[in-house]
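Page header: ASSEMBLY MODEL / two components / 619 residues total.
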Amino acid sequence: MEKRKLMRGSIALAEGAITAGCRYYFGYPITPQNEISEHLSARLPEVGGVFIQAESEIASINMVLGAASCGARAMTSSSGPGISLMQEGLSYLAGSELPALVVNITRIGPGLGGISACQGDYWQATRGGGHGDYRLIVLAPNSVQEMHDLAIKALHLADQYRNPAMILADAILGQMMEPVNLDPPPVEIPAKPWALTGARGRKPQLVKSLYLADGEMEKHNWHMYEKYQRLQEAEVMVEMDLEEHMDLLLVSFGSCSRMVNSAVALARSRGYRVGHIRPVTLFPFPGDAIREVSRCVGKVLTVEMNTGQMWDDVRLSVYPGCQCRLLARPGGAIPSPKQILEEIEKYIKAGDLLAKSVR
Amino acid sequence: MQKVFARPATLLETGFHFCPGCHHGIVHRLLCEMLERYNLQEKAVGVPGVGCGVFLYDYIAIDVCEAPHGRATAVATGIKRVQPDHFVFTYQGDGDLGAIGTAEVIHAANRGENFTVIFVNNSVYGMTGGQMAPTTLLGQYTTTSPAGRDSRNDGYPLHLAEMLAPLEGVAFAARVSLHTPAHVKKARRALQRAFETQLEKRGFSFMEFVSACPTNWHLTTLQSVEHIEQKMLSVFPLGIYKNTAAATVRKEGEPADALL
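Prediction written out in full:
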């Protein structure tokens, strides 16, 4: 029977991680994600796991690295400033090909910024974030159900591709409550013959990211690039709400997509033919889907709670010649369905006069 | 004829990259002796930090996880919490542990993490080419203290063993030296106590090795030995600063080396 429960986003995510077999959490307090660590500090000991409140986010991510090197499913969570401190560790995790789950319940930046919802960490999350040639697997939920399900998915993908995975959510998704189906899928943690479990009955093993010999590092970077190509081919997740003969295609992710959903319903009730593409995986980005759909639309409106970060990827993806506009609300402001609707109407009525991409 | 001294099998038969007169090789050998003494080769995980010690995995036949600069004690925390019955140690230099990794080591020690920290203190950044370290002696010339370390600008040598020993999570803390055979023997005994501390699950164990870096001190091997004896040991007194097994916590004014 389906277990359905009213839950807060942060708690649903934490429970999803436990369901996926994650037994190790290392974190440092920061608003607006403390509910995750508070919940896991009580829950992990109940399931035979370990919770440590570390002295910093730098320590947290490196504890995750240590736990992951032994083959355990391990995670941390934080928000903007803390995620910035973790970039060193994320780069090492990627370079050492270690799986891990890192949750970013974003806040406003730069600097100390503010604690309300914002999507200003898109670039940091999808471009790697730390030094070197690597990517994170980035999943962007837009509901409490997805906070739960994508936490499970992220831990699976991380193991499968031996790469750190990030859940990119925000204060809205962390705090809001919705009913969640907790019917758990069977958990299969893959064998990890590379794990540092002691050199018993085998040769000593090594987890490292240092390659000094001539050509080794180039080979390693191409090996990782090939992995990211495989991700791009096999793991794109995208939600599409399309119509025949659309006047306009909207693109948004995360909590912002909920406002866009409402605006799309309003626009359709007024007779506009609009569609909506929501990337669920931000890396790998559903560029092919956007290219294919935009070919027959010609006008694409990206809505984001930042100054236009995913807009870069949308403009790289659209069919050549497509017009790309942006509705951006940075700094904690949230675009209302009404504001989005006004933008939709304005853009559709602008006809073909608007030839170039504008904000 | 009986063989009384041999290379430990865990110490791989390959040439060290260490410079002549460097003491890292001795620390490696002592570690291997202890791993074999307690039959830990198949359940040990070593965590070298960034510095000359990072190539530990080329020399010691155990599982190894490379840590980012300064983060070895955080990485070791993750490893030990997942595998509490494995033998886990970090291997860090004075820059790695005494500068960039100070927060991590203090808090790992304070949590009483049940692993062993091997700290090689040669008072200089070796791998990057001789810059000033937190343990650089006052007046010591380095590439970033060209007029000698001046406390008015650079502060003072940091005393890690003394700093960590008072923490309640620390079960064993010692500073030893390797500049004479007699000191190596004392160092071996202290290292054995540190291993026992972890094996008996008594908490955090800390081994500081005062070591030579002739290359970056711009001294010969023999001059380096004299430098340790004449300059370093007065700043970094040898001794066991804490040993909960023997209930020997150093009292005020008592020389630490009485316990070695």
